[in-house]
Write a structure and sequence with these properties.
Number of strands: 5
Radius of gyration: 24 Å
Strand order of the largest sheet: 2-1-3-4-5
Strand content: 5-15%
Helix content: 25-40%
CATH architecture of the largest domain: 3-Layer(aba) Sandwich
Number of helices: 7
Order of helices and strands: HHHEHEHEEHEH
Largest sheet: 5 strands, mixed
CATH topology of the largest domain: Glutaredoxin
Low-confidence stretches: 165-191
């Protein structure tokens, strides 16, 4: 052995070109994935979400969204929901409940979730005030939450209704205690 380093089949210029190509590909992947912060608005909301039991008993108004990761409408609504959560966090708890997580099956049954996204609205005492089924744009979300926060009737929007007759405060507290409530069609039954 002569003690001299082995010569590389690539020259210095070629190595630098390969490094630049690798860096360009890495930057391109970061951009395609949505930047350094690759968490989607729905993932951000779910991560920041309180446990429903805590939200319903902490003296703040609560909006529970029943959703699924595969739900395109839920993903479409997520940026508006995240904006709502950021603007209202001092007065309103926004809670996400994934209908595909077996941990939440009791809530799915309790609140008769038969389609998603479903928003359930609760006053500061944890009493149900209404619900909304289907896509809501930012303006509609603002109307719903303003009515809830100001203790006004919910806006007359398609898919929005009061809880009257569907779930009374006494049945809600019974359900929170873990008493079973009969299930109806599930949110996944609608394809």
């Amino acid at each position: 052995m002569s003690g001299t380093p082995e010569s590389s089949p690539l020259g210095t210029t070629q190595r630098w070109v390969l490094v630049l190509i690798a860096v360009a590909l890495a930057v391109g992947l970061v951009i395609l994935r949505g930047g350094i912060q690759s968490e989607s608005p729905m993932e951000q909301l779910a991560r920041r979400s309180l446990d429903p039991q805590i939200a319903l008993t902490n003296g703040r108004h609560t909006l529970i969204e029943f959703y699924a990761d595969w739900c395109q409408v839920c993903r479409e609504m997520a940026p508006s929901m995240l904006d709502l959560e950021k603007r209202s966090r001092d007065r309103l708890d926004v809670v996400l409940v994934n209908v595909d997580n077996p941990r939440w099956q009791d809530l799915v049954d309790r609140y008769d979730v038969n389609g998603i996204p479903q928003l359930n609205l609760f006053n500061a005492e944890g009493e149900p005030k209404g619900r909304s089924l289907g896509l809501r744009n930012a303006k509609e979300l603002k109307l719903l939450t303003t009515a809830l926060l100001e203790d006004q009737p919910l806006p007359a929007l398609p898919g929005v209704g009061n809880i009257n007759g569907l779930l009374t405060p006494s049945s809600a507290s019974s359900a929170l205690a873990g008493d079973p409530i009969p299930a109806t069609a599930g949110p996944r039954s609608h394809g």
